[in-house]
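Thread: "does anyone have the structure for this chain?"

Original post by V.I.:
We have the sequence but no experimental structure in hand. Need at least a predicted one for the grant figures.
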Amino acid sequence: MKQSSAKRYMNVYLGLGSNMGDRAASLTEACTLISKNIGKIAKSSHIYETQPYGNENQDWFYNQVIMINTTMKPREVLEAIGRIEREMGRVRTEKWGPRPIDIDILLYADYVVADKGLEIPHPELHKRSFVLIPLMEIAPDLLHPRLEQPIDLLYANCQDLSEVIMLDGD
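Reply from O.Q.:
Generated one for you, tokens below.
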């Protein structure tokens, strides 16, 4: 019997953020580059304007969560994200500093990965309203593979009270 050589598509949730320049245009450009280089966008949340996290002395962010379908492995996705961030002008100088684009792997299917420079699910996912609210919009029943709780319950128990404001959509 011949083995199938078809690649398996995985659902990957990415968090996008921008607080420099034209924030909306940066999210749009990131989505275009993700579609071209990583995988098709299957779902996307509204865009939210959010208070900065960690370092509050900077401009507010635009944040969004997207779900993509990809055949890439987790490390390949991380490497492609790094290339996209660099192409869009991101220079890592300070933790939680201003940036034209930030792309994080939130969840990769139901994988749990703890490797050098790569942790899936994102280790802070359940602590950040600016991630949980848009993720809950597109996947409220999705189960966090490490905490074994749905996203809406994680949000209900989240202690982050920072402002997350949905922007008007089209």
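V.I.: this helps a lot. The chain has a mean pLDDT of 93.
O.Q.: and The CA atoms of residues 18 and 25 lie 9 Å apart.
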